[in-house]
Recover the amino acids of this structure.
C-alpha cells in the first residue's frame, strides 16, 4: 500500500511538471534540494562539485542568517528587560532595597549565578547594608582591579583565583567566567561583579552595552542618595 501511494504521488508530481514546464524556472530554489545526476560521465563531475559547493555555501549563509535573527531577538528581549529593570530601580530610593532588587533581578531574570556589589564610599556601603560591601580603593584588594576599572567599561572573561576569592568569597570555586562592571566614571564609585558557572557565559570581546547602561543607572542612583549627615540635620 505504501509503495502504491508513493508511485501514485510520483505520477501526480510528474504529470504536474509536464503540464507546467516553467515551474522550476519560477521556483529555482527547488533545484537547490533536488538530486539531478548527469549522464555525461566524468565531464559532469566538475558541474556536480560546483553545485555541491553552492549548496554548501547556501546552507552556511542560511545558518548565519538564522543566527543573526536569533541574536537580534535576544538583544531585543534583553533591552526590553533592561528598560523594565531601570524603571523599577529608579523608583527605589533606599540603597539597601535598591541593591537587593538589583541582585535578585540579575539572578532571577538574567541567569547570573553570583552577584556582588562593592562600593568605595563607606557611608554608602553602610546604607546598603548586607547588599553591598565596602572596599577601600587604596587597599591592595581594590588595586588588583585598577586596570579593569580604569577602562571605564565592562570587562568579561576568566579571572585568577586571587581575584575570584576577593569578588565571590566562598562561591569563588564555582565561578568560571566573570563580568566586572565599573560603577561611575573610571569605577570611581565601585564595581559590580557578576559570576557564572558557565565558562562561556562571559568572554573577552562580547557585547557589554547592557551592563554598561546598567552601571549608569547604578551610578545615577548613588549620586541621588542623600548623605546620612544631611538626613540627620534635616
Amino acid at each position: 500500500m505504501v509503495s502504491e501511494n508513493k508511485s501514485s504521488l510520483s505520477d501526480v508530481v510528474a504529470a504536474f511538471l509536464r503540464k507546467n514546464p516553467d515551474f522550476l524556472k519560477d521556483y529555482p530554489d527547488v533545484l537547490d534540494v533536488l538530486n539531478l545526476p548527469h549522464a555525461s560521465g566524468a565531464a559532469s563531475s566538475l558541474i556536480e562539485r560546483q553545485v555541491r559547493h553552492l549548496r554548501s555555501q547556501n546552507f552556511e549563509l542560511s545558518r548565519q542568517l538564522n543566527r543573526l535573527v536569533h541574536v537580534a531577538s535576544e538583544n531585543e528581549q534583553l533591552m526590553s528587560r533592561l528598560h523594565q529593570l531601570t524603571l523599577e530601580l529608579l523608583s527605589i530610593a533606599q540603597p539597601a532595597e535598591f541593591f537587593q532588587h538589583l541582585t535578585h533581578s540579575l539572578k532571577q531574570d538574567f541567569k547570573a549565578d553570583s552577584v556582588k556589589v562593592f562600593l568605595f564610599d563607606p557611608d554608602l556601603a553602610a546604607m546598603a547594608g548586607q547588599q553591598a560591601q565596602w572596599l577601600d580603593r587604596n587597599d591592595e584588594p581594590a588595586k588588583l582591579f585598577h586596570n579593569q576599572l580604569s577602562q571605564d567599561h565592562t570587562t568579561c572573561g576568566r579571572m585568577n583565583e586571587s581575584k575570584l576569592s576577593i569578588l565571590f568569597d566562598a562561591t569563588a570555586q564555582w565561578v568560571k567566567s566573570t563580568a566586572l562592571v565599573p560603577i561611575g566614571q573610571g569605577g570611581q564609585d565601585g564595581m559590580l561583579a557578576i559570576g557564572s558557572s558557565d565558562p562561556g557565559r562571559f568572554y573577552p570581546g562580547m557585547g557589554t552595552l547592557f551592563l554598561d547602561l546598567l552601571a549608569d543607572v547604578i551610578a545615577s542612583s548613588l549620586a541621588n542618595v542623600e548623605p546620612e549627615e544631611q538626613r540627620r540635620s534635616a
In short: The beta strands are 114-119, 133-134, 155-157, 177-183, 190-196. The longest strand covers residues 177-183. Confidence is low (pLDDT under 50) at residues 228-234. The first helix runs from residue 2 to 19.
